[in-house]
């Protein structure tokens, strides 16, 4: 429905008020109950103190002490493709703010035109023009040309704050994408650190295999000598040969894992396959720093994914207001000013060639409002969806920290026990060989002891790797790694 304000004002004031009242009645908005978000979290983690010291406050360059790992992360934060794609999304979201802001400011355009028209002489317009003189002695031109130029302006008066709320919603969406970018940084830092530790673990396993092969080959030589002296059988020789061949085969599997892990890191760093610089020595002896979880309420501030969900919720709330404003009439003002004449030489003849107009419009929904009703209901549903997303992010953050706290504690206990196991089995290798040489133990005891020692050492390396990865996971779960 379109009403020209210039005409409406000619009627009585009471008629105009009645019209607006009628529009307001028709613009009644259906109300819906909106669920409020629940931000409550436990006061502290299970079996933890209420100390607010939090490892998440550390910058990632301070958290990771390995210079090779720091260099990899630094390179990734510049060249990682996924992160650069995300940065473009952030920039597009920022541009959306400018677009929304421009909608509630006046639009000013310029225009210019030229046209020619010939009407039939035996028509009303033709008959009038035939007998019309512009000035004394100057007939109306035929065909008729027309030239014009000027400015037009239009402005929607944001009475219901629809446009301003849309702009504020765009701001929250932009801030949400920034937090999304920060969360991606945290994820990339974590993935590179985990892949780096896995690579160091495979390097250490390869070194242990090589050490064990040296021991097994020496044992194989000893068994062959024992066979020559009729103190061992061909079966013992074949068993030791098979064990040596099995571990040599396993070396190639580990080498393939190294190639794949290096390429995974290269992909995250955003470069072509190449050797990854690293220091794998003393990986098992690497220190595991203490982690400080703080209190659960800090997750609401430190976790970028939680903050992202919160900002998306705020944007969804504003979008409800925007959708609600569509039920109300909009107020538009359109104005134009310029010059118009049938010959260019008359364009500078004012006020004769001057043209201007001012129009005020009121436009509002009257019949068939199904589309805006659906949009309003969708906005409400999206707000409720955003509430659940926010609550899910909080719950997920709390559970992740709780899991990692337990994981770190159990891995420490497991590692300490496995260190004792490896020490005992390493000593038993020498004992079994001495007993075999003195015919007090058979070859299977030697073989099984060496196999058990190798498996226990590899398990120890895996546990150390899990400890390092658990530290990184804890740092990420607490909300660190993006600053």
SSE diagram, text form:
Blueprint (H helix, E strand, L loop, with lengths): L1 E3 H4 L4 H14 L33 H4 L3 H13 L1 H23 L3 E11 L6 H7 L2 E3 L2 E2 L4 E14 L4 H67 L5 H36 L29 H4 L1 H22 L4 E12 L12 E10 L6 H68 L5 H36 L5
Antiparallel strand pairs: 1-7, 2-5, 3-4, 5-6, 6-7
Helix pairs in contact: 4-7, 5-7, 7-8, 7-10, 7-12, 8-12, 10-11, 11-12
Characterise this structure.
With 483 residues, the chain is an alpha+beta fold. The chain has a single domain, classed as Outer membrane efflux proteins (OEP) (Up-down Bundle), CATH 1.20.1600.10. Helix content is 62%, strand content 11%. It has twelve helices and seven strands. The protein has helices at residues 5-8, 13-26, 60-63, 67-79, 81-103, 124-130, 162-228, 234-269, 299-302, 304-325, 370-437, 443-478; strands spanning 2-4, 107-117, 133-135, 138-139, 144-157, 330-341, 354-363. The chain has a five-stranded antiparallel sheet. A two-stranded antiparallel ribbon has the order 3-4. Strand 3 (133-135) and strand 4 form a beta hairpin. Helix 7 (162-228) packs antiparallel against helix 12 (443-478). The longest helix is centred in the last third of the chain and has 68 residues, at 370-437. It is elongated, with a radius of gyration of 40 Å. It comes from Cellulophaga algicola (strain DSM 14237 / IC166 / ACAM 630). This is Outer membrane efflux protein. Its main location: membrane.
